[in-house]
Design brief:
It is a single chain. With 248 residues, this protein is mostly beta strands. Helix content is 0%, strand content 41%. The chain contains no helices and 20 strands. Strand 12 and strand 13 form a beta hairpin. The radius of gyration is 19 Å and the shape is globular. The chain starts with 35 loop residues before the first strand and ends with a strand. Belongs to the pirin family.
C-alpha cells in the first residue's frame, strides 16, 4: 500500500470541541467511512469499493484492508488478479454470489464459493493469484485483510476454509466465519481475537450481540461493513468493543 501523492498536504492533528449534537462523553465513537472506487489489478480491471485503508484511518482494530465488489455482471471479464505477494497478514475471502479460483505458492488450489470462507495466512511470505471461474456470470463479495501480531508474523503460510452453519433468530440470520458470535464459533485459526460474520437482518429487526463474542482487549475497534441499505454499500461503521453494542 503506497502513497502515490508526490506532495501530500501537511495536516495538524489537535483536539477540537465536539460538534453540536455530538454523542455524550464516554459514548463509543461512530464513524462513517465512505469507500473509494479502485480498479482491481489494473486500470481496465473489475472495480471494487475500498473502505480501508484511508488517509483518516488506516486500521480498524487489526483489520487493515476492506474491499467489497458487485453484484456485477462479469461474463465479459470478471476478476483477474495476477500473482502478487503478501507477508505478515491474512486475507479473508467471502462471496455472496459467483465463484473464484485461488492458487498460491504454498501449493494450495481452491475454489471460493458463496457461504464458504477462505482464509490465507501469508505468514513469512506467499504469492497468490485469483480469477473468477468461467461459469461465473455475476460476482459479489468482499475481501478483508487483517494484520498479524508479531508472534505470528513469520508463521508458515497456509490456506484454510470453512462453511459455517447458519445461526437463526427473530428477524436475523448469521454465518460466523471467524471467531465467536451468537453462540457459534469458527474453527479457523486467526492468531488474535477477532470476529467475522455475515449478518442479514429483516427490516425493523434488532440484534443484540452483547456477551456473545470472544473477548477482545478494551479499546480495540470492530467494523460493521454494510452491503445493503440503510447504510450505503461498502461503508464501515466502527465501534469500540469494550462496551456492549446492539446492531439494528
Amino acid at each position: 500500500m503506497s502513497n502515490t501523492e508526490a506532495h501530500p498536504a501537511e495536516r495538524v492533528c489537535a483536539n477540537e470541541p465536539p460538534p453540536p449534537g455530538a454523542a455524550p462523553a464516554g459514548t463509543p465513537p461512530l464513524e462513517m467511512l465512505p469507500p473509494r472506487e479502485v480498479p482491481l489489478g489494473g486500470p481496465r480491471a473489475m472495480g471494487v469499493r475500498r473502505v480501508l485503508p484511508q488517509r483518516e484511518r488506516s486500521l480498524v482494530g487489526a483489520w487493515c484492508f476492506l474491499d467489497s465488489y458487485g453484484p456485477e455482471d462479469v461474463a465479459a471479464g470478471g476478476m483477474r488478479v495476477a500473482r502478487h505477494p503478501h507477508t505478515g497478514l491474512a486475507t479473508v475471502s467471502w462471496l455472496f454470489e459467483g465463484r473464484i479460483d485461488h492458487l498460491d505458492s504454498a501449493g494450495n488450489w481452491a475454489t471460493v464459493r458463496p457461504g464458504e470462507v477462505h482464509l490465507m495466512n501469508a505468514g513469512a511470505g506467499i504469492t497468490h493469484q485469483e480469477f473468477s471461474t468461467a461459469d461465473t456470470g455475476v460476482l459479489h463479495g468482499v475481501q478483508l485483510w487483517y494484520a498479524f501480531p508479531d508472534r505470528a508474523r513469520f508463521s508458515e503460510p497456509s490456506l484454510a476454509s470453512h462453511r459455517p452453519e447458519p445461526v437463526l433468530g427473530p428477524g436475523y440470520a448469521a454465518l460466523v466465519f471467524a471467531g465467536t458470535l451468537l453462540g457459534a464459533s469458527s474453527p479457523i485459526r486467526t492468531h488474535l481475537p477477532l470476529t467475522g460474520a455475515d449478518l442479514r437482518l429483516e427490516p425493523g429487526a434488532r440484534l443484540d450481540a452483547r456477551g456473545s463474542r470472544r473477548a477482545a482487549p478494551a479499546g480495540i475497534d470492530r467494523p460493521v461493513m454494510a452491503d445493503q441499505p440503510p447504510w450505503p454499500i461498502g461503508h464501515v461503521r466502527p465501534t469500540v468493543v469494550d462496551r456492549p453494542t446492539a446492531v439494528h
